[in-house]
Design brief:
By secondary structure, this protein is mainly alpha-helical. Among the domains are: 1-58; 90-202, 434 Repressor (Amino-terminal Domain). Helix content is 80%, strand content 0%.
């Protein structure tokens, strides 16, 4: 065999072996990449499963818990007060308290319940359930019922919200309830008009003292009116006594 042919066949064989080894290396590289991809996928799956487990095991805060989180920067007494206040707004309790107010309004109206239901555009059965506390009245229904009973709707609903069913029931059909409604309606504009830019300096802790001063102002005003009335009576009596003399 000629030397040139032998050397050519060796070169061809070497090239083939080199190509084969390159292919094996490429296959090995592909296998490693595949294993790395599988490991990466397993890592992602483990993370996803862990995240889902944590998400499902996490309980979203209730209303009381939310109040606690909001007020966690304050002291323990304020946190407890916030949590106690939330319990006052339980649906069953609110429904029962509103029913107490509406029952008092219906009874003091002197009207038949069927007439009240007709004027308030509420079915008789719905009215019965509202008054027994087994059905919640909407704001519109409560206002219409009180109007049909002849009481000031806005005044007593405001009283119910800020003072409860007991006081709002005691103030039914009174001038005091109407005064409270007018006071609440006029107060925001009066504060803006008198305080101006100082309105942003008002502190919540001043509310109780301000209420006491308003009550004292009313008391002084009533006493002044009583003194004037007494003075007028004395003047009237003296003038008639002088005429008869």
């Amino acid at each position: 065999m000629p030397i040139e042919r032998f050397e050519g066949e060796n070169c061809v064989g070497d090239d083939a072996r080199c190509a084969g080894r390159a292919g094996l290396r490429a296959k090995a590289t592909g296998n490693r990449a595949g294993r790395a991809g599988i490991c990466a996928n397993h890592g992602v799956m483990r993370f996803a499963v862990s995240y889902m487990f944590l998400l499902c095991s996490f309980r979203f805060p209730t209303a009381i818990g939310a109040a606690y989180l909001v007020s966690r920067g304050s002291n323990g007494k304020e946190r407890n007060k916030a949590m106690m206040d939330i319990t006052l707004y339980d649906e069953v309790l609110v429904r029962a308290d509103l029913a107490e107010l509406l029952v008092a309004a219906v009874e003091r109206s002197g009207r038949a319940r069927c007439d009240i239901a007709r004027d308030a555009a509420i079915h008789k059965d719905a009215l019965r359930r509202i008054l027994t506390g087994t059905r919640s009245a909407s704001i519109g229904e409560a206002l219409r019922l009180m109007a049909a009973c002849g009481v000031a709707p806005s005044a007593h609903l405001l009283l119910f919200l800020v003072a409860g069913a007991d006081r709002s029931s005691r103030w039914l059909q009174s001038d005091l309830a109407l005064f409270f409604e007018e006071l609440v309606c006029e107060l925001p504009s009066a504060l803006e008009r008198v305080l101006g830019n100082q309105i942003h300096d008002v502190k919540p802790r001043w509310a109780k003292g301000t209420a006491q001063r308003v009550a004292r102002l009313l008391s002084d005003h009533i006493e002044e009116l009583e003194r004037k009335d007494a003075l007028l009576v004395d003047i009237y009596a003296g003038s008639h006594g002088g005429v008869h003399a």
